[in-house]
Amino acid sequence: MIKGNFVFHNNVEIPKIGFGTWQIPNDEAYDSVTMALKNGYTHIDTALAYKNEENVGKAIKEFDIAREDVFITSKLPAQTKGFDETLAAFNETITNLGVDYLDLYLIHAPWPWDEKGKDCTEGNIQSWKAMEQLYNEGKIRAIGVSNFEVKDLQAIIDNCDIIPMVNQIPFYVGRDQEELLEFCKKHNIVVEAYSPLATGELLDHSDIKKMAEKYDVTPAQLLIRYCLERETLPLPKSTHEERIIQNKQVDFKISDEDLKELKGFEDIRK
């Protein structure tokens, strides 16, 4: 089982593996989060857009764990831009979750999902300033972004007071986003890897299966370990207890040679 934390540039610590809840419906979220907590996950990732915050919050509240011992992340919807709009969305999120504060709050994307690539720089800056205010008021312990590219991050760095602590991006074998990774490292921004299994599409890849057998692990364990070896924080999700347990059992090393091979993979989802 993986122990230890990543540390943000404000010294807040975050557990090295998170439990993702994207695509888990609200009616299944309670059981899934309860299973995750039962099996040692203390970092739960949700979002207002997932429409499951209510049952994520209920599961955490009803589980025998102190609020300060669980790290909760949620996200500002991608289409919500602006100062007051951000404050209102944040209040909706903490009401849904039934908590007084968040450990991490992220701008879900630099543009609305149905207008991918749209320039929302000014809106993002205003949203970020609202998040800085919430952070300074102690309502959020850390603030960050998701799906931001270098230019989006640079706009925040140039126009705001606080550098994002996190950038949560799609990151998996075949999609390493090297330039973005390097930029984040340079600015002390922790990269969180969502879809570490390429939403399941890499699990049946013959080369992945072969390498996993060599280490006597599952393909999922190999893919999650790869993210950790690349110093990113994986957010695997599952609604099956056996897999929830396995996804955390990644305390092995991938050899330099195999790491190099995995780095050379083509993105199968292009």
TrEMBL record:
Entry protein name: Aldo/keto reductase
Residues that hold substrate according to the record: H108
Coiled coil start-end: none
Domain NADP-dependent oxidoreductase: from-to ranges: 16-265
SUPFAM superfamilies: NAD(P)-linked oxidoreductase
Highest taxon listed in the record's lineage: Bacteria
Family according to the record: Belongs to the aldo/keto reductase family.
Keywords of this entry: NADP, Oxidoreductase
GO molecular function, one term: oxidoreductase activity, acting on the CH-OH group of donors, NAD or NADP as acceptor
NAD is among the record's keywords: no
UniProt organism field: Marinilactibacillus piezotolerans
Pfam family, one: Aldo_ket_red
Membrane-spanning residues: none
Catalytic residues in the record: Y50
Keyword Oxidoreductase among UniProt keywords: yes
Annotated site (Lowers pKa of active site Tyr): K75
